[in-house]
Amino acid sequence: MPATPATPRLPFFDGPELPLFLAPMAGFTDYAFRELCKAYGADVMVTEFVMANKFLDERSEEKAWRMVDFTPGQRPMGVQIFGGEPDKMAEAADRIADRVQPDFIDINYGCPAPKVVNNCAGSSLLRDPCRLQGVAEAVVRRVTDRLPVTAKIRIGWDKASINAVEVSRRLENVGIEAVAVHGRTKEQGYSGDADWDVIEAVADALRIPVIGNGSIRTVDDVRRIRTAGKVQGLMVGRRALGNPFLFREIKHALLTGKDLPPPTLEERWEVMLRYGRVLLAHREQDPWDRINWMRPRLKAFARNFPGSKNLRRKLESVQTLEELQRVKG
């Protein structure tokens, strides 16, 4: 075990309250959505994950840099990368540290998507702890003089091979300074309940901070987790999609012990329209005002509206922000 935990380089763990992280979610936690979540109380952001090789190829690097763009107001900010080749992961981390200067680099060992797993990255590395450790060690060695490195894992590949404690110890031993644990296996995907007993076992085993992720659906879930265990941060994922207000509700409940009323319908509409405007303004490569590509994101917001089924149907034909405004009425 390291002599001392490395929390001074991750100061958001030093406060009296659990820091709230917005989980990185491909296709959703973009620049615009992070802006909203920050405004409503998320403490720490992590970009959508990007394959390390994208930063090393002239044909793909422009898009990669756009994906990890952020504003000073979104700090503390981490950039998440994935890959299974230690040298390329280290080189990508080095370029990110120099050009973007995030508050930390995060390594993805949790994504269960076939296109990631089949490239020996993401959660596939849970089946090869030595290689997983080698990737982390290479990245830490390359950038540790400039910024900390964290990691996000799942509890194992499947129910028969839960190895989160072993994997997390390996990561701690090579200099990873915090670990986020998604309490599901790769085989579970996003179904079933997260296993918080395993998350707490990791928190018991390590001296570095552990961030819990999975099945955080309500303020009551947060209260239970905060009371029961040793995790030092909470990461909210799919439950925040279309619902950035959740961060505000959690913060208020933890500080006052009381629940906030849900956002009004008018506030929900105001936030969805604001989100659309920011998304469109940030889409520099597309000068047109068509918003077809936004539909999955907008439908995530509509999920929390009264009469959401009918609204989601209407969103299928919306082409512009002006049309979206007319749907609002």
Tally of domains: 2
Count of discrete alpha- or pi-helical segments spanning 4 or more residues: 13
- Taken in chain order, the helices and strands follow as EHEEHEHEHHEHEHEHEHHHHH
CATH second-level architecture of the largest domain: Alpha-Beta Barrel
**Rg, Å, rounded:** 20 Å
Structural class: alpha/beta
Fourth-tier CATH superfamily name of the largest domain: Aldolase class I
CATH fold annotation of the largest domain: TIM Barrel
**Which blocks of ≥5 consecutive residues have pLDDT under 50?**
1-6
Per CATH, the class of the largest domain reads: Alpha Beta
Helix content: 40-55%
What distance lies between the first and last C-alpha atoms, to the nearest angstrom?
A: 60 Å
Beta-strand content bin = 5-15%
Shape: globular
DSSP E strands, number: 9
What do the pLDDT scores average to? 91
Keywords:
TIM Barrel; nine-stranded parallel beta sheet; 13 helices; 13% strand; disordered N terminus
How would you sum up this structure, described in words?
- The chain has 329 residues and is of the alpha/beta class.
- It folds into 2 domains: 12-256, Alpha-Beta Barrel (TIM Barrel), CATH 3.20.20; 265-328.
- 40% of the residues lie in helices and 13% in strands.
- The chain is built from 13 helices and 9 strands.
- It has helices spanning 31-39, 61-67, 86-99, 114-117, 129-143, 164-173, 196-205, 219-228, 245-256, 265-282, 295-302, 308-315, 321-328, and strands at residues 20-22, 45-46, 50-51, 77-82, 104-109, 149-156, 179-185, 210-213, 233-236.
- Strands 1, 2, 3, 4, 5, 6, 7, 8 and 9 form a 9-stranded parallel beta sheet that branches.
- Strand 3, helix 2 (61-67) and strand 4 (77-82) form a beta-alpha-beta unit.
- Helix 5 runs parallel beside helix 6 (164-173) and helix 11 (295-302) packs antiparallel against helix 12 (308-315).
- It is globular, with a radius of gyration of 20 Å.
- Mean pLDDT is 91; it is low at 1-6.
